[in-house]
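Before any further analysis, we paired sequence with structure tokens, yielding the entry below:
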Amino acid sequence: MDLKIEFPLSGEFKEFREIGEETINSIENEVNALRSDELKLSLFLIIHLGLAPSEISLLKVSSYGSFLGVPILEEGKVKRFVLEEKLNKKLKDLKERKLPEDKLVDVSPGTVKVTFHRIMKKLGLNLKVSDFRDNYVAELLKKGLPQDIVVEYSGCSLDRVAYIGRVFFLRSKADIIEANLKES
């Protein structure tokens, strides 16, 4: 008799891999070599905010603003704090040049995807857009934001945010339960 193991079909579990500053810098160098400013901005939105190309296509110039003095991109379900100062400056400049109802970037999601994958391949990186979203989640957690706010401003599920927090702070579920619930 053969033992058959079946994994759930919904959503594959993906390990969290932090993307280091050196890797981000090498990707930024490739992006800066592109000719189109709008394509560059789209890729910076992926790299620094973990936005998917389909989410980027929903953004308008009016999506960029501030919340309690913190720069933010917000359009429908898409919400991201703009933490990177270079990206914040690019968005401010764009807001001054375009009308509020204009698309933030006029580049098709397909073009953004193809360019993103071409850069990853050129650099020999096996990274996906979701890896950058996870990295953004880790940045918010490093800043001490509570999980519910990170969920709201990252587009990740609470389970994913909790998992990244445990990995990032190097504490397993067992360690947390033992430290907080076990009687002395």
Q: What stands out?
A: The longest strand covers residues 70-75. Residues 69 and 161 are 24 Å apart (CA to CA). The two ends are 47 Å apart (CA to CA).
